[in-house]
């Protein structure tokens, strides 16, 4: 469909009303507007022309046409106009392009502030209980990439998210906060000043939730798919088992995006989630900030300088088994785990920890499908 100029129009009214209908989720919404041509046409014709709906059941469309939803949409538009909030429609190609590619992309994205669609985005997430280890990594990463053109994305939570937004602002990198509620709220309230700073420093706040939606628990998981879908890469700094960042990494994997995780000691609670993502081949281990920025296509100028003035690197001593696995991977690029098992007579539960150790040393990289290459 053609992109319209960004005026709040009749189509915005019907889109909000349609999305408010019970049982109409983002995937069904998108199917219907593609069949009927617009949200307005869907609203007015779906029941008369039910045979067109390609298997979308009567129960699902039963709430379309409910006048209460139009009244809700009128109030929402008034709120957006009064608070300088843009209403982005997926079917008008107004979402960030990578996000729009996701099957379950939000039908509507409410946006406050500036978000340049053409600038590369990088999602960075982690625990609310950030340690000094995670904090130092974030500081070092932003120092390394301060000359690069990109926009950071996180979730405005306490801990890692807050640090990501603050360091972005400190280094004049635009930052986008994805909220798990409507613009009538700000959660956590401690981050109100930070949210204002994000807007004043050329960043944005975005949400798929209408203004009256509170920060309910389930909204946070739903929000995480936007954080994952909006960027080609997601970095997980620190997280425990079952932390919210695990869901963001899972969404990123499902969208075929790159995931990087900061490994840590197996005894550290907030490294266990990252270590597990690496162990399951759901994330690439971050072995150094230099290797990470190279993988992301950032920090290029600095790295060229390092090549002109190389630093002395201490030679790493590998154990006998590490050496064995490393040589096999070097000799057989993109070798599969099963092939390593055959060539070494070692079991997978002995080989995988060795590979993890080699990844941490920056000697080996894991590819999808349990394939490995030497770096």
TrEMBL record:
<dbReference type="InterPro" id="IPR057666">
    <property type="entry name" value="DrpA_SLOG"/>
</dbReference>
<protein>
    <submittedName>
        <fullName>DNA processing protein DprA</fullName>
    </submittedName>
</protein>
<feature type="domain" description="Smf/DprA SLOG">
    <location>
        <begin position="90"/>
        <end position="296"/>
    </location>
</feature>
<dbReference type="InterPro" id="IPR036388">
    <property type="entry name" value="WH-like_DNA-bd_sf"/>
</dbReference>
<dbReference type="InterPro" id="IPR003488">
    <property type="entry name" value="DprA"/>
</dbReference>
<comment type="similarity">
    <text>Belongs to the DprA/Smf family.</text>
</comment>
<dbReference type="GO" id="GO:0009294">
    <property type="term" value="P:DNA-mediated transformation"/>
</dbReference>
<dbReference type="Pfam" id="PF02481">
    <property type="entry name" value="DNA_processg_A"/>
</dbReference>
């Amino acid at each position: 469909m053609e992109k319209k100029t960004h005026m709040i129009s009749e189509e915005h009214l019907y889109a909000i009303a349609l999305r408010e209908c019970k049982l109409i989720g983002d995937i069904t919404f998108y199917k219907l507007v593609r069949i009927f041509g617009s949200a307005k046409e869907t609203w007015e014709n779906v029941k008369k022309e039910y045979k067109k709906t390609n298997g979308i059941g009567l129960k699902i469309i039963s709430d379309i046409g409910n006048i209460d939803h139009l009244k809700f949409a009128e109030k929402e538009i008034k709120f957006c106009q009064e608070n300088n909030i843009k209403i982005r429609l997926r079917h008008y190609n107004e979402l960030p392009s990578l996000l729009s590619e996701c099957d379950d992309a939000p039908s509507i994205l409410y946006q406050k502030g500036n978000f340049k669609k053409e600038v590369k985005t990088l999602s960075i997430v982690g625990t609310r209980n950030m340690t000094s280890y995670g904090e130092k990594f974030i500081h070092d990463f932003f120092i390394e990439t301060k000359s690069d053109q990109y926009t950071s994305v996180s979730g405005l939570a306490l801990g890692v998210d807050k640090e990501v937004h603050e360091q972005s602002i400190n280094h004049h990198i635009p930052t986008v906060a994805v909220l798990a509620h409507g613009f009538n709220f700000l959660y956590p309230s401690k981050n109100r000043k930070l949210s204002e700073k994000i807007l004043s420093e050329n960043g944005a706040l975005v949400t798929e939730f209408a203004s009256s939606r509170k920060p309910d628990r389930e909204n946070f998981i739903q929000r995480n798919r936007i954080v994952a879908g909006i960027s080609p890469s997601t970095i997980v700094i620190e997280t425990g088992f079952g932390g919210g960042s695990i869901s963001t990494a899972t969404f990123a994997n499902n969208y075929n995006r790159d995931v990087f995780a900061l490994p840590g000691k197996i005894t550290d609670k907030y490294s266990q989630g990252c270590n597990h993502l690496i162990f399951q081949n759901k994330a690439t281990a971050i072995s150094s900030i230099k290797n990470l920025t190279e993988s992301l296509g950032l920090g290029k100028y600095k790295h060229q300088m390092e090549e002109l003035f190389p630093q002395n690197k201490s030679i790493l001593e590998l154990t006998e088994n590490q050496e064995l696995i490393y040589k096999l991977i070097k000799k057989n690029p993109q070798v599969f785990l099963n092939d390593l098992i055959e060539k070494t007579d070692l079991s997978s539960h002995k080989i995988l920890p060795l590979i993890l150790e080699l990844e941490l040393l920056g000697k080996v990289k894991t590819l999808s499908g349990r394939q490995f290459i030497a770096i």
